[in-house]
Amino acid sequence: MEFLVVLAVFGYIFYLRNYADLRTRSEKEVAGLQEGIKLYKDNQIQNAFDYFDAKIKAKPKSSFAYLYRGLCYKALGDSSAARKDMIMGLSYDGTLAEIHLEKGKLEFESRLYIEALQSFDNAVLYDGDQNQVPYHWRGKTQQALGNDIEAQKDFLKEADFLKQKLAQGPGIAQPKAPLVDKRLAINSLLIFVTSVILILSIKDAESIHLPYLLAAVSAISIGFVEPVRGWILAISQCILLLAGYFLFTKIPESSGQQELENFSLYGSCILTFAGSFIGGFFKRALNAG
């Protein structure tokens, strides 16, 4: 039984580490750079530069760190170094429209129109169905190259985007992420499996140590994978534990065994809430760092 419990715990941790976080790699990168991005947006350019410079030294393949260090170089007046950073960022992920767009702006300002056109073509390729800005800059570049017909097409496309946004109205708020989604459903299924294993460990254990260990590990995992909605999973696990124990198991006749199981059961519920809070704290600290 102990071997199965340990195997389940490590399997769950492996899943959380590799598959439960459904964000794209780019979204994870940006989440980990929020402190520096805020410095840049607050116009604390030198502090932002130092931040992204340190991030690149620690993680040399971070495309977004190169993007923002390049933007800092640009703000500090070094366009050549800025463009080199953009190129370096794209060498690690060539599908990032944001970098293609900013690189194209640098090239346009330096009158490198052919290179700028290629950059804006890529920005349109990777983000042209979501954003009008690449069309605007590609239109300006086509104009600078004397391609008036192509420029007009891009400006018309930009105008179509703006008309759609105007039709939506200024009061339309961005939709919030749903409270329940596929990711939460998958994690809820894992919570069900974990609860079953916990109940079996409570009935089989000779002390409180094994149920408490399993409850603590699963609870910390809950908070780590769902730092915002972890409370939903924590409540679900407690309900499943209590319902499963009282509805589907036999209450022991021995008062000593019943006391042991009660300690294991209610202690596991308490650890579920405490551990999910700790796991959420660790995840937010990891994202911030």
TrEMBL record:
InterPro entries recorded: TPR-like_helical_dom_sf
The entry's keywords: Membrane, Transmembrane, Transmembrane helix
Domain of life of the native organism: Bacteria
Transmembrane segments: 184-202, 208-225, 232-251, 263-282
PANTHER family tied to this protein: TETRATRICOPEPTIDE REPEAT PROTEIN 16 (PTHR45153:SF1)
Entry protein name: Uncharacterized protein
Organism listed in the record: Dyadobacter koreensis
